[in-house]
Every structure is written in structure tokens, then in C-alpha cells.
Amino acid sequence: MMMSSVKLTASSPFSSAFRSRKNNKLPNLQTRSQLSTLPTIQIAKQNLGHSPFFTHKPLHLSSSIVCQAYEADRSRPLEIEIPDEEVAKKLKMGLYFASWWSLNVVFNIYNKKVLNVFPYPWLTSTLSLAAGSLIMLISWATKVAEPPKVNLDFWKALLPVAVAHTIGHVAATVSMSKVAVSFTHIIKSGEPAFSVLVSRFLLGEAFPLPVYLSLLPIIGGCALSAVTELNFNMIGFMGAMISNMAFVFRNIFSKKGMKGMSVSGMNYYACLSILSLLILTPFAIAVEGPKLWAAGWQKALSQIGPNFIWWVAAQSVFYHLYNQVSYMSLDQISPLTFSIGNTMKRISVIVSSIIIFHTPVQPINALGAAIAILGTFLYSQAKQ
């Protein structure tokens, strides 16, 4: 900023020029350009010369000129706006959640497609774990992902978690082989009720009254949906219930056994998949067996063609991806936010499966699903 100030006093050439009566013109100054910044003043010819304003009081004229020039200031660093950390974190979590939900929807669609023509849920579950294990082993071998630093104590602590995870995974797949995807997920939205009941009666953990009250819409909504479900099947219903119970114990074992062990969410789930695969494989062979698998595989190929192979590969890969992203999300957010995200995930799966598979839904069935999901949301808020 530049300031230019001109001060006229009684003894200055400017004031004498104003008092001049000969020609009422300003004297010839050496630099006329200095006056170009002064405002235009109209001076009377005769009578203003005798005014006391000119004879007794000095005249102060001031003009301010603001000059703004673009010039690099080498003394100051270049300022660049950096996005706020909170904004970046929210964008990152939004990406995680969007990936989690979309991958889960894709998995459920292809999983149901496979089970419709290849009704062998034990082998289907095994292939899902095998694909994830293979992906992570290759990632560790090629240094795409940093291998976890684990010891024997880690695997001992992980064993009960893997057992519960295996039971929950197989039970959910069995359920989806018998009933609609939407029905399985409506029943699985009742998982918080199992969590509270197990924690209360087996672990002696007490909860505030709002938590218990939130269980009423969960249980009531699931019951209403089950009663009004058009393609109700007891095996499908029990599979979803067993899956709920197994995942509750998985979470309990995980919290108790994994304290103090620093393993990233991605590597934690990778180790869980490998151990679950080792547990599940012999049971899958015993329950179904290679003969049934071979016959069923040939039948599915004759009905669907080569696309069946793509369906199997897609359901296997997307199962691992959606679980991996969910565990990576759990690394970054609180359990409360994770439970809310899990509730929203169920909504996306239920709605998308109804649309894609044209599942018939009665109004009373939809109401039961809405009540159950609302209860799950209220539970997550009360747990806070």
C-alpha cells in the first residue's frame, strides 16, 4: 500500500497560489504530475481571496492511492490450501463403506446364483475361503501386502475365532441355499439380540435399559417377517439363527483373545480365512463329498454353460474382498459406526436381492423387515 499526502499551509506556494488575484491560475510547478492526484477544486475569482478560510486556517488536502502490484515475495513461502484432515478422513471412510456395501451386494447375488443350480453350500463356503487364502498368500509372496509378524500364541488365540467364523459362514450359506437372500438377511439383522443375550447370561455383562428396549423391535420384526415369509423353510431359518449365534461368539473370542496383538485388519482377516479353510475342508468332504460335487458340477455346466464357472469365481473372490474391506474399516472407525454400517449393508442387500431375483414380498413382510432394521439402528444408538 502506498500513501500520498499533500499538505497546504498559509506559507506554502500552493496557498499563495490560491490567494492570487491576477489570473486565478495555479503557478507553474516543476512537476505538474504531482497535482494530478489532487481533487479538482473550483475557486471563486474575487470574493474567496478575502475569506478567513484562506487567510487564517491552513488547508490540508490529502489523497490516498492504493497500489496493488502482483510481485513475488521471496521472503514468504507459497501458500497452498491443504484439505482438512477430517474431510479427508470422512472421504476415506465413505469410500470404505461404499466398497463394503457394493462388494457385499455382488457377493450375495452371485452366491445365490451358484446355490440355485449347485446346491452344495459346504463346498461353496470352502471355495470362498480358499479364494481369499490364495489371494493373500500371493500378495504376501509378491510383497504387494506386508506379511504379518505372528507367532504361535497368535494362532492359538485365533483358533476359537476361526471355529466360530467357520460355523457362521457355513450356516449362512446353508440358509441362502434354502430361502431367499432377503429373508436370510432379515433374520441376520437380529444378531444384536443374540449379542446382548449371550453377553448378559453367559458373561454376566449388564446393559442400560434402552439397550434391552431396542431388542423388542428387532425380535418382533424378525418374527413378523418369518411368519409372513412366502418361501419359509425351517433349515433356512435355523441356518440364519445359527449364523447369528456363531458370529456373536466370534466377536467375543476376537475381543478377548486378540488384545495386545498388533495385526492390521487386512492381515487379521487373511489369517482368519486360512485357519477357517483348514478347519472347514475335512468337514465339507465328510458332509457332501467329491462324488456329489462332480455330479452337481456337470449338471450346472449343462444348464448354465461356462458362465457358471464365472459365477463360482465371482462369489468366491467377492466374499473375500467384502470381508477384507469390512475389517479394514473396523481398523479406522469405532464399533458403533461399524454396527451402523453393518445395518445399512443389510438394507442394501435386502433391497437389491428383492429387485434382482424378483422376490415376492407381502406388505406385512416388508413391515417386519423395516421394524427389525429400525430396532438394529436403535440398538446401535443405545449401545453408545
UniProtKB/TrEMBL annotation:
Q: How does it sit in the membrane?
A: Multi-pass membrane protein
Which residues, if any, are the signal sequence? none
Protein source organism: Arachis hypogaea
Instruction: Kindly provide the name given to this protein in its UniProt entry.
Output: Sugar phosphate transporter domain-containing protein
Specify the domain of life of the species encoding this protein.
Answer: Eukaryota
Mention one GO molecular function.
phosphoglycerate transmembrane transporter activity
Q: Which GO terms describe its cellular component?
A: chloroplast membrane
Residue spans crossing the bilayer? 122-141, 234-253, 265-287, 307-323, 363-380
